[in-house]
Amino acid sequence: MSAIKLFPSHDAIPFIEQVRLQRPLIHCITNDVVQNFTANVLLAIGASPAMVVAEQEVEDFVAVASSLLINIGTIDSQSAKRMLLAAAKAKQTQTPWVLDPVAVGAALKYRTEIAQQLLTFSPSVIRGNASEILALSGQQSSSKGPDGLDSTDSALNAAKLLAEKYRTIVAITGEIDYVTDGKQIYSIVGGDIALTRVTGTGCSLSAMVAAFIATSKDRLAATASACFMMKKVGELANKQSGLGTFAMAIIDQLSLFNQNH
Amino acid sequence: MSAIKLFPSHDAIPFIEQVRLQRPLIHCITNDVVQNFTANVLLAIGASPAMVVAEQEVEDFVAVASSLLINIGTIDSQSAKRMLLAAAKAKQTQTPWVLDPVAVGAALKYRTEIAQQLLTFSPSVIRGNASEILALSGQQSSSKGPDGLDSTDSALNAAKLLAEKYRTIVAITGEIDYVTDGKQIYSIVGGDIALTRVTGTGCSLSAMVAAFIATSKDRLAATASACFMMKKVGELANKQSGLGTFAMAIIDQLSLFNQNH
Amino acid sequence: MSAIKLFPSHDAIPFIEQVRLQRPLIHCITNDVVQNFTANVLLAIGASPAMVVAEQEVEDFVAVASSLLINIGTIDSQSAKRMLLAAAKAKQTQTPWVLDPVAVGAALKYRTEIAQQLLTFSPSVIRGNASEILALSGQQSSSKGPDGLDSTDSALNAAKLLAEKYRTIVAITGEIDYVTDGKQIYSIVGGDIALTRVTGTGCSLSAMVAAFIATSKDRLAATASACFMMKKVGELANKQSGLGTFAMAIIDQLSLFNQNH
């Protein structure tokens, strides 16, 4: 069993700076609930979001984008088709891409099947909560919907197996985040429980991971850096005024993030 | 004619607490404009939102969800099919469900027809503005779009007839809210005109009703409690700084809501 | 070559007031990222937004709406069909309509083709960034996605040609905005770079233009007035607290906008 190493927060700084410098173009095929929040999160960290979804356009756009995000939150037959086309193209053009397998599990067989198909197109990173990572690796999970009920510790082994099997990086996020390539494991602590009470924080973290891996070759550390940034922002954002202010403050803090953290 | 009874605001407290305690899983099939706001409203009151829309998934998910919301705001042929599948399943599994008949009326015949079909699947609650309730009961209304132009008083009789005919609860919201099962009528006063100038307050109130009826058997009082909570929040939320701040403050106040109100 | 005239800001006031007085009903067929923001922007300036998209409903609704907005940001085959139906109907019923040709260009051929088809239905106004206006007029642009990379100066000639060819008004927005009917050219200066770092400011400006031309016959000045209002709001909105607060403050300032500016 590999040792878990606490990700050194100062290591995140150059990754954060690279996104701002390079302004990567992130092709997002994501769910209907979080499109606006995701676009604003990407703009706040200095990336350029582009939600391009037409069957006629996704392949061409994957070819010009810096990276691709696929999030299956509100999947249906049509979006499934687009996701599969985009993922296949990304594999072919070696465009880095992130899979966010929202709410996969026993209650939702269709998306779980599509997620398994998407896995065959070699995602660069998979980011999910513990229930999703457990379900994706074929184990039992406790959740029925998008909100996770399992601890990230309980999914760590599943994450490692998944990372090895698909030669990818798996990030499980929750009370403690773990990021692994099947060999090394980084843990990221901190954050705030309020992050689970605003919709789209996980989904937009996946988009941030897409931006971070678009601008660096060290994908393990890039993914951990994105996780660190979101956790830190969750700590910095004002929680006293309620969840509306908190959601807005996440975007604020991402846009103001500096090296002193 | 039944007497109108002012809903006693302290009666709302146990309903509000039950949502927080039980954290119901709310299956939302709603319109594209308010998905994010609705999810954040549900999270703010302590519920767990899940926007599941695929034809392949809606029936399975209705069976595991605590309740279902169907909002026809941006309906098209595909979403209509999903709504009908979900409503039929909800009737079969006796999953409580809320119908929000956005913008039904003479100008929009397609949705009015689908709404009539949805009615046959026994919604637990129908929540709309006066124009929508009038149109749904076959009477003439003054609105062309989603913003209501009729007074809730003018739709009270239509609400009662609708409630009796479909053995359901009807909530008409506006300057004064009325909630009726065809026999009893609760009125809820207060609120603020600014609530009509932020998109999604009505739609997310329907989602709140879904959460409230998922956690209580007294659906009439549960529905009135949700209406009370939204009106109170409209009063508490800061209006001086403009409508952007006000929209955010609605979520704030829902998340901070306490027994002193 | 026609002279460029700085748009006199006090000329905007009656246009802004007319929208508040007449409360036009704006039929929006827009992209999935900005639906909520667009609806709140329209409500904030006093208009009534209605997102009606079903193939079965768009034509009937164009006939009752005060004006129509078509934004191709997240276009696919189905929405393309709806847009073409709505635009054809608008031409027939002489309903004023605005085309926002998001991200047209060499990288995205499908939408560029649909945009060309939409042009044949005589939009009242075309609003885009410089890259989009260049691409729409058949010239080379530098952008791959929705974020423009060309200066508005570089697209001024393309705007004039486009306006003449389609007998329409073209607004190019960016560091300096230009509004032209092919003969007269207004420039609008000011604004803030932060406007480019929040998603939907351009898209909702197009919606504002739809509201302004719905309530005035002087479409050139009405379009320039909408551009002025957005630029001014960008100056007034708080930027110090970060981009989340800034996005909210745009809605705030639109709703509080008064004659003193």
UniProtKB/TrEMBL annotation, chains A, B, C:
Detail which positions bind ATP: 127, 173
Enzyme kind, highest EC tier:
transferase
The annotated pathway is: Cofactor biosynthesis; thiamine diphosphate biosynthesis; 4-methyl-5-(2-phosphoethyl)-thiazole from 5-(2-hydroxyethyl)-4-methylthiazole: step 1/1
Q: Name one GO cellular component term.
A: cytosol
Q: Molecular function terms in GO for this entry? A: ATP binding; hydroxyethylthiazole kinase activity; hydroxymethylpyrimidine kinase activity; magnesium ion binding; phosphomethylpyrimidine kinase activity
Among CDD domains, the record links this protein to: THZ_kinase (cd01170)
Q: Name one GO biological process term.
A: thiamine diphosphate biosynthetic process
The record's InterPro entries line, in alphabetical order, gives: Hyethyz_kinase, Ribokinase-like
The residues that the entry says bind substrate are 51, 200
Q: Which SUPFAM superfamilies match?
A: Ribokinase-like
Q: Which cofactor does it need?
A: Mg(2+)
Reaction(s) this enzyme catalyzes, per UniProt: 5-(2-hydroxyethyl)-4-methylthiazole + ATP = 4-methyl-5-(2-phosphooxyethyl)-thiazole + ADP + H(+)
Q: What is its EC number?
A: 2.7.1.50
Keywords annotated in UniProt:
ATP-binding, Kinase, Magnesium, Metal-binding, Nucleotide-binding, Thiamine biosynthesis, Transferase
Q: Where are the membrane-spanning stretches?
A: none
Task: Give the family from UniProt.
Answer: Belongs to the Thz kinase family.
Q: What the protein does? A: Catalyzes the phosphorylation of the hydroxyl group of 4-methyl-5-beta-hydroxyethylthiazole (THZ).
Protein name as annotated: Hydroxyethylthiazole kinase
Q: What is the lineage of its organism?
A: Bacteria, Pseudomonadati, Pseudomonadota, Gammaproteobacteria, Orbales
Gene name, Swiss-Prot/TrEMBL: thiM
